[in-house]
Amino acid sequence: MKCLFSCANQYVKESDWKDFALVKLCLCAIGVMIGLAVPKKKKKMPLLIAAIVFIATYIPLMTKFLRIVFRREDDAACECE
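The structure assignment produced for this chain is given below.
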């Protein structure tokens, strides 16, 4: 398991935003396929679970992203002065 995490960390170091965009599209596509496979009468629970997972992952991701954006803006402002 430790090797798996080490490989994942190396992948992240060698990737750029385009690689992560492809990963996101791939995950979105598999999510759509899974969603289409769920019978109509049983879609409430998967929808609720997906919404909870989305919120639980989106908030920390955007928090980190915004922290980086504001830090870069502060750095840029310092360079201009």
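Interim note for the steering committee: Residues 59 and 65 are 10 Å apart (CA to CA). The mean pLDDT is 89.
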